[in-house]
């Protein structure tokens, strides 16, 4: 079986599995993007989140939050109201932490060249402790301020998803056009090979196209994309 057939088999197996996320389905704001990637032969997605605001109740031995070991007091993929947080905080017994987590997408790529199309960056988040041992440590005014910040980040996150989708769509269109013109493809492959030889380890970890980088160069923080290359030993 050739590698393309192996990748198609692996993709079919992964996409046929049940969605094990808490929600059990793809978030509305990234459905189109996920479906678009999964229709491409060289990609498939393994998990995603459109971005969310959470209130987590952790242990009482410090403020470090480990989501698998704490209670989920509140989670929303939409802008959050202060009253909802205040009500949820009453259920906290440990160290409650308010978090905003930006869009994240895990993508399997057939080849390293395919991964070049995606940008890999993510620091657009927020994490603030609100209570300790069940006791609220901040004022409601401060909670209101934090939610304004988190909601602004949520709105910006949505814009970045749309911008990323458009950049990706255009990049794949260019790739298709390149494949239709052998001379252009040969030139691009030569340039890629030269860069790979110059710094192969960096290329394997993070591949960013110049075109996409220019589209997003005005952003301080970009979207989180986890890329995995199809393993040789599969």
UniProtKB/TrEMBL annotation:
Belongs to the TYW3 family. It catalyses: 4-demethyl-7-[(3S)-3-amino-3-carboxypropyl]wyosine(37) in tRNA(Phe) + S-adenosyl-L-methionine = 7-[(3S)-3-amino-3-carboxypropyl]wyosine(37) in tRNA(Phe) + S-adenosyl-L-homocysteine + H(+). Keywords: Methyltransferase, S-adenosyl-L-methionine, Transferase, tRNA processing. InterPro entries: tRNA_yW-synthesising (IPR003827), tRNA_yW-synthesising-like_sf (IPR036602). The keyword Lipid biosynthesis does not apply. One of its GO terms (molecular function) is methyltransferase activity. The keyword S-adenosyl-L-methionine applies. Residues 10-118 form the tRNA wybutosine-synthesizing protein domain. This is tRNA wybutosine-synthesizing protein 3 homolog. Its EC number is 2.1.1.282. Probable S-adenosyl-L-methionine-dependent methyltransferase that acts as a component of the wybutosine biosynthesis pathway. Wybutosine is a hyper modified guanosine with a tricyclic base found at the 3'-position adjacent to the anticodon of eukaryotic phenylalanine tRNA. Pathway: tRNA modification; wybutosine-tRNA(Phe) biosynthesis. One of its GO terms (biological process) is methylation. Pfam families: TYW3.
């Amino acid at each position: 079986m050739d590698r393309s057939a192996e990748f198609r088999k692996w993709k079919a197996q992964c996409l046929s599995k049940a969605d094990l996320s808490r929600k059990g389905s793809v978030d509305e704001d990234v459905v189109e993007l996920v479906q678009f990637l999964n229709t491409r032969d060289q990609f498939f997605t393994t998990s995603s989140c459109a971005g969310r605001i959470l209130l987590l109740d952790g242990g009482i031995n410090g403020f470090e939050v480990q989501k698998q070991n704490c209670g989920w007091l509140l989670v929303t993929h939409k802008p959050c109201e202060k009253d909802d947080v205040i009500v949820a905080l009453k259920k906290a017994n440990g160290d409650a932490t308010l978090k905003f987590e930006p869009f994240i997408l895990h993508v399997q790529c057939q080849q390293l060249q395919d991964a070049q199309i995606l940008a890999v960056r993510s620091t657009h988040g927020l994490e603030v402790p609100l209570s300790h041992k069940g006791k609220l440590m901040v004022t409601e005014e401060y909670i209101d301020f934090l939610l304004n910040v988190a909601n602004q980040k949520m709105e910006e996150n949505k814009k970045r998803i749309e911008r990323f989708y458009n950049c990706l769509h255009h990049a794949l269109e260019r790739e298709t056009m390149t494949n239709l013109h052998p001379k252009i493809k040969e030139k691009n492959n030569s340039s890629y090979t030269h860069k790979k030889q110059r710094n192969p380890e960096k290329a394997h970890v993070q591949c960013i196209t110049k075109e996409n980088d220019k589209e997003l160069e005005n952003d301080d923080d970009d979207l989180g994309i986890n890329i995995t290359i199809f393993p040789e030993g599969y």
